[in-house]
Write a structure and sequence with these properties.
8-stranded mixed sheet, single chain, alpha/beta, 47% helix, 14 helices, globular
Length: 333
């Protein structure tokens, strides 16, 4: 109850920020002379909190690489950002995060540009009401939200580590998760069932993928620390935001409940604040393997904190990718 009241009132936490804080506010402390050196990749940037994250980072001088399935929508976003920030450096490349082959093509294109990579924001999210499969024959929400981001991160990780070594600037990876990861029960978190569920429930599938995002951050953080790599990875809950994916959740939110809940929903600027805070704010330097909400480190579920479960998920995912025999992937043991 106390936490709920704190959220509703927008009371600041230890970071000095809270639920009402905007992405603009958390990046005001960032020096333009510093941020203008940075290059960031943001998935799911053509709408919602991804678009706001892109707008704010561009305003701070960060070079943006925007992977998009719909390049027309991406071009519209680019035009809108450049109207506000004419100096913005924005590169658009095609990707379908549910397709391993498409992710490979994107990474090859990006790496061929010879650019550094300081920030990777795994923001794109898919909620599917009915059972659908990716072209690789995996359940679509899990394929997009988790498998796609896992593969993308792995293929770009060496570039991030190299950039950090060459520039002395900490690399930062942000996995956008959700508080709904708490809904997942241990006996329902089975890798093979998430790939090809027998009894499909859209909300459960989405929650499972968001739990996997946190476990990914926990395990990769452990591995990066073991390598003494100057790259951090964290997971964030953006809050319940007025975006298209929220409206897609009619499996558990009726129209009337949505109307009432909408009075408590965050704006996209508030929803993107935690992402921007973890990606750019000086206060999060050196912080890795954590879970943030309302721009403050907070507790995630016991299952999300389970190091054995995180390692097991990593191994299953690595084995799956290896079976597909994709070249150019470096996966750390």
């Amino acid at each position: 109850m106390k936490a709920t009241l704190k959220y509703l009132a927008g009371i600041a936490g230890p970071s000095g920020y809270g639920s009402k804080t905007t992405a603009e506010q958390v990046t005001q402390v960032c020096s333009v002379s510093f941020t203008s050196q940075l290059t960031a990749i943001i998935t799911g940037a053509t709408s919602g909190i991804g678009a706001e994250t892109a707008r704010v980072l561009a305003r701070r001088g960060v070079r943006l690489v925007i992977p998009a399935r719909d390049l027309k929508k991406a071009a519209i976003l680019k035009e809108a950002i450049k109207k506000q920030s004419p100096w913005a450096d924005i590169i658009l490349l095609e990707i379908d995060l549910s397709s391993f082959a498409s992710i490979q093509r994107f990474c090859a294109q990006f790496l061929s540009l010879g650019l550094p990579l300081h920030i990777l924001i795994n923001n794109a999210g898919k909620f599917s009401q009915k059972l659908e499969f990716s072209e690789d024959k995996f359940e679509l929400s899990f394929a997009t939200n988790y498998l796609g981001h896992f593969l993308l991160t792995e293929m770009l990780l060496d570039k991030m580590v190299e950039t950090a070594e060459q520039t002395g600037i900490e690399g930062r990876i942000v996995n956008v998760s959700s508080v709904v990861h708490n809904w997942v029960k241990r006996d329902k978190f089975c890798f093979s069932q998430m790939l090809n569920p027998k009894n499909y429930n859209g909300t459960r599938a989405y929650a499972q993928s968001k739990l996997a995002n946190i476990l990914h951050a926990k395990e990769l953080s452990r591995q990066l620390k073991a390598r003494n790599a100057n790259v951090a990875i964290n997971a964030v809950h953006p809050g319940i935001v007025k975006t298209g994916i929220t409206r897609d959740h009619k499996g558990f939110i009726t129209d009337s409940l949505y109307f009432m809940a909408s009075k408590l929903l965050k704006s996209t600027s508030q929803g993107s604040a935690s992402t921007c805070y973890v990606a750019l704010n000086p206060q999060t330097r050196g912080v890795s393997g954590k879970y943030f909400a309302d721009c403050n480190e907070c507790h995630c579920s016991d299952l999300a904190n389970d190091e054995i479960e995180a390692r097991k998920l990593w191994k299953h995912t690595r084995a799956l990718i290896h079976r597909r025999s994709f070249p150019g992937i470096t996966i750390f043991s």
